[in-house]
Amino acid sequence: MLGFIWRQLRGRAGRSVALLAGVLVATTGFVVLTGATTTSHLDVIGTVERNTQVAYEILVRPHGTRTPLEAERGLVRPNYLSGLFGGITTEQYEQVKQVPGIEVAAPIAMLGYSTTLLPTPIDLTEAVDRSLDQQVIRVDPTFHAERGLSSAPGKPRYVYVTTKPLIYPRIEQGFDSAAVPYSDGRSYPASDTCGPVPREVQPNGRSLPICDPGYALLGNPGTYSEREDWSLHAVHLRPDGRFQADSSVLATDRDNTSAPSDRLVMAYDLTVPFLLAAVDPAAEEQLVGLDDAVVTGRSIRTDDTVAVNRGGTVDYHQIPVLVTNRPFIDVSLTARFSRLAISPAGVEVIDLEETLSRPAGTPAGSGRYDLTAGHGAMLAEELLQAGCCRGQLQTVVQSAEVQYDQLPDGSLRARPQPPGDPQVYGRMETFNPLPRPWLADDTGSRSIRALPLPTGASTPNRFWRAVGVFDPGRLAGFSDLGQLPLETYQAPTAEGADDRSRAALGGQPLTPSGNPAGYLSAPPLLLTNLGSVPKLLTGGGGSQAKAPISAIRVRVADVGGYSERSAEQVRLVAEQIAARTGLDVDITLGSSGAPQTVELPAGSFGRPMLRLTENWSALGVASVITQAVDRKSMVLFVLVLVVCVLFLGNAVSAAVRDRRSELAVLSCLGWPVRRIAALILGEVALLGLVAGLLALVLAIPLGIALGIDVDWRRAALAVPVALLLAVAAGLVPALRAARTHPAAALRPIVAPAGWVRRPRTLFGLALVNLARTPGRTFLGAGALAIGVAALTLVTAAAWAFRGAIVGSLLGDVVSLSVRGADTVAAAATVLLGAAAVADVLYLNIRDRAAELATLRAIGWTDAELGRLVGYEGLALGLVGSTTGAAIGLASAGWLIGALPGVLLLVAALVALAGALVSAAAALVPTALLPRLRPARLLAEE
């Protein structure tokens, strides 16, 4: 049988090669194009909280940001940005902005924690005994955080109050330590250990220095904790009962005027880390109404630049920021006062601490001081002067994400982290003018690192200065933040989850402590513009300089609230963002609070282990990036195979009709029905097998050339696909051939169309000829109609609907988006349909060769015969194209629920293109007409 099959194929080499080429093209195209369907597809899962409004519907983060816990539970921690520093390039941000359907894309670049000093003025007026000529008020501070559960004592601060006159140094740039000018007009030497300090004038006219421990004992402030900071300040109790000191000693002396004051209020500052972030001011205004939230000064602007000022040998870089009017940090200070009857005047600095700590002293009161009050006081006072508020940027601290362990009961346990390396806050070679926060030495929940910034002798002095103050409470939607845990400016809280924890917290929620390594982190409290980031990061050598953006918050156009249609629109935009950028994309539309129980291990400063209920974000329309096959693309690619089956089926049927005499003879010789069917199927299957093997060889290099990933497993599919394709195409013709009676060989190949009238025009004759082979005509027109329908739908989505159609089908919201592979598949389907039309015309010419020869013999010219065949091709093309365009138009209209004019235009243009392609395909069989030999054909007839 195999030998017989091989001889049959070799004997009809031309037809065999044509069939082989058809199977090869369809199979190779299918295998390669399906390689483009395994894409990052965004599946929408879960139940939606339909009444939730959000400031943005899509959250874009760097690739790999999504944690395993987040992926498993579909949850996002509050203040997810606090541990996310960079990872998105400006080029990727531009790609996101170019995605159709986006109303605003607001980037945010988290830079890290800048420490600043918040005033916590301590009123010591009542602690002063005005009857004494000399006294030292000792202030013993205790730092508190986390609802008072974490506490730590600090070193005492000392205020020396004397009725004797004080003189103060008047230091200028490059002063001579051997002769420091003082306020009395004289000059005094400054020792290497004591420094230029106030001097107390004695009755004999001499003056004694009141040494400052910060000059020689403490060193670089960035190398020690604020708990280790201590000081000695001198205050003059004037005869009129008022107090006077050198600049910055009294809290009432913020303007450095050293003016006398009725009250002795010591300037005490707490070191507080403020999270600095950079935004696009215009996008932030669109997203949350940032300009309307400014309460003092002005908002940050896109064109604000880093001010560079020269001071001696050092450059000063001033970063413009917008500062919040709420610190969102739970830190307070208590202090006990005692009065010491001693004088530190003239005591060497090395002996100063021992001298001051020796006497027990007389209790003189206490006080409690809140950080929020100090922050408000700073804003109120400094905004009235030359600009508000500043903080250092010599050292910027970044914290990592919290790591969790899952407990047997389903709750989470924050994995404890050892205290961060103190050098993160400052080293001797990296001058930080501020000590590290006291709670930085606590057991944390995050690891910390320093943002890579330029260092060295020529490093500029970097700091931020506020241009305005904003109130987060005025941001759009802020009143609903309790229900929207994903908001950028929300301060996270955690309630006690059991009676013991609630009692420890005093019935109040746990709030951020001000420790960058702590469990809860405050939202961004400082906002600058993205244009300032390169000036800050250039020269540091860190990766964030190349990819500064931490997240992009996207609002989708025309999404006013939740609906199934809106959800599908958002999903479609999110999918395009993921495909274009490769970033992690989450849908926040419909997000809602999902309380999680978290166990927080005990801290180093007294906080016990707490079980907390924290309001995480459940993505109501949850999004999961999956490697899935685009079903719509698969439908298009399968249509390529369907059209190929029609094409091959028509060709095999023609081959069977051409061999009907031969098959009749075989039947008369006793061949059973199944053997005749096996002969036909065997020939087609062998061609399919060869085509599959060739496709296996061609698929991988073709995929490389087209930039499509085709691995060997996918390429191996070519063999079974080609084999099944060939068998499916040859099955019906083989069964018909096996069941045909031998007498059928005596019947004409082309049947007359007795039901039609005699045609009076050439076009009418063409229609009659098509009607004489209805099956063949149906296959050709159907193949073309399938291709045109697919192309109509794809063109409508790509051109009329900006790349995607979103609508409702049988009550379910569906979408159709267009990718490059889809367009290729649709175009290939049309071309295969046109090839089927050409094949139909060729077979018609071959089967009616005797008729055409007769027409030529009676005087018809080649031009008239060519027009006849051309009209047949045009009619076939019009029927197929019109039908296909109507199907595509109806499908798109059904999907969107309307038929806009642009959709009708698309359908008309595609139908016209299909008809023209079909007419062009008719030129190939028309060119065969001159090869007809009338004499030989009439003799055979």
Describe the model.
By secondary structure, this protein is of the alpha+beta class. The strands form 8 sheets. Strands 2, 4, 17, 18, 19, 20, 23, 24, 27, 28, 30, 31 and 32 form a 13-stranded mixed β-sheet that branches. Strands 6, 7, 8, 14, 15, 21 and 22 form a 7-stranded mixed β-sheet that branches. Strands 3, 25, 26, 29, 33 and 34 form a 6-stranded mixed β-sheet that branches. Strand 12 (199-201) and strand 13 (207-209) form a beta hairpin. Residues 39-51, 478-485, 621-630, 800-816 and 935-940 have low confidence and may be disordered.
Protein traits:
13-stranded mixed beta sheet; disordered C terminus; 37% helix; 941 residues; alpha+beta
Question: What's the topology here?
Answer:
Blueprint lengths: L1 H10 L1 H22 L3 E8 L12 E4 L6 H6 L1 E2 L13 H8 L4 E18 L2 E2 L10 E12 L4 E4 L3 E6 L3 E2 L12 E2 L5 E2 L10 E3 L5 E3 L3 H4 L15 E6 L5 E3 L19 E2 L2 E11 L1 H8 L5 E4 L9 E5 L2 E11 L6 E10 L8 H9 L4 E9 H12 L5 E5 L3 E4 L4 E3 L5 E3 L33 E3 L10 E10 L23 E3 L2 H6 L21 E4 L3 H5 L13 E6 L7 H18 L2 E4 L4 E9 L9 E9 L3 E8 L1 H28 L1 H9 L4 H34 L5 H5 L1 H22 L22 H11 L1 H27 L3 E6 L2 E6 L2 H28 L1 H9 L4 H35 L4 H21 L1 H4 L7 H7 L1
Parallel strand pairs: 8-14, 17-30, 20-28, 26-33
Antiparallel strand pairs: 1-35, 2-31, 2-32, 3-34, 4-17, 4-24, 4-31, 5-16, 6-7, 6-8, 6-21, 9-12, 10-11, 12-13, 14-15, 18-28, 19-20, 20-30, 21-22, 23-28, 24-27, 25-26, 29-34, 33-34, 36-37
Helix pairs in contact: 1-14, 2-12, 2-14, 2-16, 2-19, 12-16, 12-18, 12-19, 14-16, 17-21, 18-19, 18-21, 18-22, 19-21, 19-22, 20-24, 21-22
